[in-house]
Amino acid sequence: MSFLFPALAATAAGTDRVALRFGERSLTYGQLRGAAGALALRIGGAGRVALWATPTMETAVGVVAGLLAGVPVVPLNPKTGERELAHIVADSAPTVVLAGPGDELPAALRALERIDITASGSAGELPPEAAAGFPALIVYTSGTTGPPKGAVLPRRAVATTLDALEDAWQWSRDDILVHALPLFHVHGLILGILGPLRRGGEVRHLGRFTPQGVARELNSGGTMLFGVPTMYHRLAEALDRDAELTKALAGARLLVSGSAALPLPDHERIAAATGRRVVERYGMTETLMNTSVRVDGEARAGTVGVPLPGVSLRLVEEDGTEIAARDGETIGEIQVRGDNLFTEYLNRPDATAAAFDGDWFRTGDMAVREPDGYVRIVGRKATDLIKSGGYKIGAGEIENVLLDHPAVREAAVTGEPDADLGERVVAWIVAADPQTPPSAEELADHVAAQLAPHKRPRAVRFLDALPRNDMGKIMKRSLHG
Description:
Layout: E1 18-22, E2 25-28, H1 29-43, E3 49-52, H2 57-69, E4 73-76, H3 82-92, E5 96-99, E6 113-116, E7 135-140, E8 150-154, H4 155-169, E9 176-179, H5 186-199, E10 202-205, H6 211-219, E11 224-227, H7 229-238, H8 243-251, E12 254-257, H9 264-274, E13 279-284, E14 288-292, E15 306-307, E16 312-316, E17 332-337, E18 344-345, H10 349-354, E19 356-357, E20 360-369, E21 375-380, E22 385-388, E23 391-394, H11 395-403, E24 408-418, E25 422-431, H12 440-450, E26 459-462
Parallel strand pairs: 1-10, 3-4, 3-5, 5-6, 9-10, 9-11, 11-12, 12-13, 25-26
Antiparallel strand pairs: 1-2, 7-8, 8-18, 13-14, 14-15, 16-17, 17-20, 19-20, 20-21, 22-23, 24-25
Helix pairs in contact: 1-2, 4-5, 6-8, 7-9
């Protein structure tokens, strides 16, 4: 029986159950076993395989095949630029590239042996299960501080994180997951495709996100929705004019947001319209999932819940001293350890060593802990922790207050050097009505009244849109005066 996918064992019950659905196309567990098993037998023995990760059935079949074969899979973002893609290919050195039959591959991949993925086939005995510590995937980080690094994720980490989410979310084979996430990263590929398959449930991928698609699939049996904040913002905006969407979200068992913080105004709009609270969780490429709001706990907006089973989490000062306080105020860097962690950055022993404090992984994320253990992230250490006038200020709480102002559509907060304060708070604003934007004084007073005077923006800059990556995260390094 497969360690990662028990439902794909030859003796598994329910092989006629739907496993994957992409639009009008679907595969049962029996068909997925045949297609992925046949491909697994073809690629067995390859050192590593690259996967051209389009949002298609073929990508799902390809990643399952790689895992069945015990061959590390390197998912590739089809939107990656030529230079970055060349670096990833040279660094990971795959011997084969898997792609859909109609996919046109860029020059950086044309020297590799190509195998087209088909969603059909048959397989007898599957290859023997690889060891739990063997690499399952090599997922490349975003490369905001240099060339992307390949995080080597062992099979153990994939199983551990998905089983921890089974516990936290009461995730079962009866669940039908709906999402439209990219399939080259942890959220969409590991949680969104491998998660349902490990449970023996069904995933319905929309291909392209639309509120109408979400409403259609949830109203026709979907029980769970995964999304990023940009998606939930669009859902929140559509609720007032779409009764079917309101019904769909209200009827879902679980709404999950991740990859970035969901702004409080969107939390509240969705809750007010549907009676359902969006659950947030926290993870990284290197750690998979660390914390989540539990379905049997309080879905508290603005927090990412409590550590998942098997995950140890602590907050530390800049000098590495552990912070014991759970007062909701003292900010520290999150460090984690557990079987959910990656094993190394490929070919980068220096970076791997620097990422750990003993066996604790330094996440670079700053947070506070509430008295009941809930974690509230205030931002990245490099971009979201602002030291101003002797205070440590988290950008996230200021952003949420700014977003609560009726004249603000989008907001980001950064720090910039200040001769007097050390750093000053800068707000980057997309106005709800560009013709009549709010004044800087109005926004500063709004923040000071809600939080504290030292947290008010000292400068306000207006933009037509905030720069975001494929996962909807704001790219703050692109914001500068």
